[in-house]
Amino acid sequence: MELDLGPDIAEFxxxxxxxxxxxxxxxxxxxxxxNNVVTTGGYGSDRRAEATRHPxxxxxxxELQQARLICPQWPEEFGGKxxxxxxxxxxxxxxxxxxxxxxxxxxxxxxxxxxxxxxxxPEQQAHFLPRIITGEDVYCQGFSEPGTGSDLAGxxxxxxxDGDEIVITGQKLWTSGAARANKMFVLCRTDPTAEKHAGxxxxxxxxxxxxxxxxxxxxxxxxxxxxxxxxxxxxxxMFNVIGGLNNGWRVAMTTLGNERGGGATTQHLRYEKEFxxxxxxxxxxxRSTEALVRQDLAWAYTHVELMRFQxxxxxxxxxxxxxxxxxxxVSKLFWSEYHKRLGEIAMGILGAEAMVASQPxxxxxxxxxxxxxxxxSSRAGTIFSGTSQIQxxxxxxxxxxxxxxxxxxR
Length: 410
Ligand SMILES: Cc1cc2nc3c(=O)[nH]c(=O)nc-3n(C[C@H](O)[C@H](O)[C@H](O)COP(=O)(O)OP(=O)(O)OC[C@H]3O[C@@H](n4cnc5c(N)ncnc54)[C@H](O)[C@@H]3O)c2cc1C
Description:
The protein is an alpha+beta fold and about 400 residues long. Helices cover about 45% and strands about 15% of the residues. It folds into three domains: about 5-105, no CATH class; about 120-245, Beta Barrel (Butyryl-CoA Dehydrogenase, subunit A, domain 2); about 265-400, Butyryl-CoA Dehydrogenase, subunit A, domain 3. It has helices spanning about 5-25, 45-50, 55-65, 85-100, 105-120, 120-135, 250-260, 270-285, 290-320, 325-350, 370-380, 390-400; strands at about 140, 160, 165-175, 185-190, 200-205, 210-215, 225-235, 240. It starts with 6 loop residues before the first helix and ends in an 11-residue tail after the last helix.
């Protein structure tokens, strides 16, 4: 099934295709396989990082910036191109087709920017948004704490107002990409007497401040991609409080909506490619005629197709200018549980070989191959951005209208 999105979109697709072929620097597509599913810090991420240091990538980045195609979904007044979700999906598809990368600005683009656009003042928008587009500010997310992940509203990090500054003290945990960031968006408790969700503020802080320290947390994949962070009286101007003091929960909900729903329209493309790579691997190993292997692969194929249909349904909703419903949680639950199971299927296909490292390792190292990394890292997908249990609660309570789960606080 394909979706006819009408002549305007067909024209946009043709123009985008032409623009990409006219502007993508020679050799860019060959630098690495930009279409692979790469888990940050996992297999393939070194090669991708190296490719982004190549002059062809810098040239491509400059071309995209010139054409406002970095953060293209942001409104034009904020430096984007104002592409609606359907056009963003088409843009992504065309980049994928041309095997060239979408230059992204990480959490700045997908989480901080949208939150500042919705909740920031015009002065905050003018200050913070351009710095994300140029890549000058790279953000990490300071939400989770040692005692509060799913129960985010229970967070303990303190924010105390001191004149025209806010002073932040506390500990954050599981901070992805902290070592690459120069800014953090932090949730802190600014009114300890208020009801749990009411006394929280959303603040942008300088992550290079000497009062910030962090250390890496090693994951079971061997990578140390996230950190625990200690904020020891970090000062930020009140200007950096987004959405107003004690109004951070509303801002955080905008952030989380974007985190869970982002990419739902085109994510199947990566999983489709990964699926066919696994089919190739199965054929190479002479296992593609085994009934149980075929059954597992058929399960995976069906799920990638369902993701595609779900993406089409979301696109059709957006094209009709309707608000998507609980798709964000449905999509997050679906892809993360799928990917975990795909990792298990891949391990079954590799058989006993899956249990040992594929290359000789240095002391203390245990290099994993692509499928071992998928197996191990995909488990994280069912935890970050809200665990599968939390997504099921949201779908049950907010989408299906089931009774709320019993809570000791009520
Ligand atoms: C790879 C990765 C990257 C991450 N990056 C970041 C980041 O950049 N910034 C950041 O702030 N955080 C980040 N996190 C943290 C992530 O948001 C939390 O791990 C997640 O919210 C779960 O919180 P927790 O680990 O404290 O587990 P807990 O909340 O303690 O949950 C433990 C278990 O209890 C279950 N559970 C909890 N409450 C309920 C309930 N009400 N009903 C049913 N079951 C429940 C959970 O589903 C889970 O299985 C990251 C996590 C991972 C794995």
